[in-house]
């Protein structure tokens, strides 16, 4: 990757991290479920899938790797899930994992449909 690529990833990462913080802070928690992280993961997965299936690589560094790489957050998802397990909130633990996995896989499936429509 050339210097421009690193710069685009860095700028995108800055933007994506701020967006994640904003979205996760806006979405209210539903019981024990960290719905802010869930929302970010679904949005990011769906957008990444759309961009990937739109077959345009012009946004690879800035959008795909930079913004969406820092916007979505598997590490936060796993930490929050483990915290629920430690708190013995077993139903919320399983629900959180199920929602993130099922909804994000659905988002990947939605990406090519959106790319074909737009």
Q: Tags for this entry?
A:
single chain; 118 residues; mainly alpha; 5 helices; 81% helix; globular
Q: Number of helix segments?
A: 5
- SSE sequence, one letter per element: HHHHH
Rg: 15 Å
Summarize the main sheet: none
Structural class by sheet pairing and helices: mainly alpha
Residue share in helix: over 70%
Q: What is the strand tally?
A: 0
How much strand content do the residues show?
under 5%
Shape: globular
Q: What is the distance, rounded to the nearest whole angstrom, between the alpha carbons of the first and last residues? A: 30 Å
Total domain modules: 1
Low-confidence stretches: none
Whole-number average pLDDT?
A: 91
SSE arrangement:
Layout: H1 3-26, H2 35-53, H3 60-71, H4 74-86, H5 90-117
Helix pairs in contact: 1-2, 1-3, 2-3, 2-5, 4-5
Describe the 3D structure.
With about 120 residues, the chain is mainly α. It has one domain (about 5-115). Helices cover about 80% and strands about 0% of the residues. It is built from 5 helices and no strands. It has helices at about 5-25, 35-55, 60-70, 75-85, 90-115. Helix 1 runs antiparallel to helix 2, helix 2 packs parallel to helix 5 and helix 4 packs antiparallel against helix 5. The protein is globular and about 45 Å long. The model has no long low-confidence stretch (mean pLDDT about 90). Belongs to the fluoride channel Fluc/FEX (TC 1.A.43) family. This is Fluoride-specific ion channel FluC.
């Amino acid at each position: 990757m050339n210097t421009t690529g690193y710069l685009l990833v860095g700028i995108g990462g800055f933007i994506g991290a701020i967006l994640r913080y904003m979205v996760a802070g806006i979405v209210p928690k539903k019981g024990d479920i960290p719905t802010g992280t869930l929302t970010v993961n679904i949005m990011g997965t769906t957008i990444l899938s759309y961009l990937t299936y739109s077959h345009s690589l012009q946004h690879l560094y800035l959008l795909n790797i930079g913004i969406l790489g820092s916007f979505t957050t598997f590490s936060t998802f796993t930490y929050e899930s483990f915290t629920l397990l430690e708190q013995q909130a077993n139903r919320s633990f399983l629900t959180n994992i199920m929602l993130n996995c099922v909804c994000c896989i659905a988002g990947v499936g939605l990406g090519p449909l959106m790319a074909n429509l737009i």
